[in-house]
């Protein structure tokens, strides 16, 4: 059973940076699609960045390209989201998600079975 635990959220001023972490357990050595989503109250959840852990291929939403970077340290079973040049519109609850292969790392269409509890990011 895959479990995901996010950390690293907080409050930051516009232009600042945060790095989110998602520690995973219960995964096997096979590749996974993993992603970061975000959601604000009253809005649909939005895919932000995704990665295929088997090869490191990534995909990003247009709204974060050039500012956010997703990565995975397989030795630590941890997924990261480095967020730079943060904007007030980046304020949201951020969730980590995972799906076993076969899966799609297309951030717009990938579907995920496993989710973390979320970590809040506030940019003022």
Could you please describe the fold and organization of this structure?
The protein has 124 residues and is mostly beta strands. It has no helices and 11 strands. A hairpin with a 5-residue loop joins strand 5 (46-52) and strand 6 (58-60). The model has no long low-confidence stretch (mean pLDDT 94).
Write a concise synopsis of the structure shown:
The chain is mostly beta strands and 124 residues long.
What order do the helices and strands come in, and which of them pair?
Layout: E1 3-7, E2 10-12, E3 18-25, E4 32-39, E5 46-52, E6 58-60, E7 68-73, E8 78-83, E9 92-100, E10 114-115, E11 119-123
Parallel strand pairs: 2-11
Antiparallel strand pairs: 1-3, 3-8, 4-5, 4-9, 5-6, 7-8, 9-10, 9-11
Class of secondary structure makeup:
mainly beta
**Average pLDDT, all residues:** 94
Radius of gyration: 13 Å
- Contiguous helical run count: 0
Biggest pleated sheet: 7 strands, mixed
**H-E string:** EEEEEEEEEEE
- CA-to-CA gap between the ends? 37 Å
Mass-distribution shape: globular
């Amino acid at each position: 059973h895959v479990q995901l635990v996010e950390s690293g959220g907080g409050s930051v001023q516009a232009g600042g940076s945060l790095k989110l972490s998602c520690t995973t357990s219960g995964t096997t050595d096979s590749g996974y699609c993993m992603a970061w989503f975000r959601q604000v109250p009253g809005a649909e959840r939005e895919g932000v960045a995704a990665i295929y852990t088997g090869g490191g291929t990534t995909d990003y939403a247009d709204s974060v390209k050039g500012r956010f970077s997703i990565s995975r340290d397989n030795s630590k079973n941890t997924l990261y989201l480095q967020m730079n040049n943060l904007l007030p519109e980046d304020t949201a609850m951020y969730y980590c998600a995972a799906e076993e292969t076969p899966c799609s790392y297309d951030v717009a269409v990938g579907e995920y079975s496993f989710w973390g509890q979320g970590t809040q990011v506030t940019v003022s």
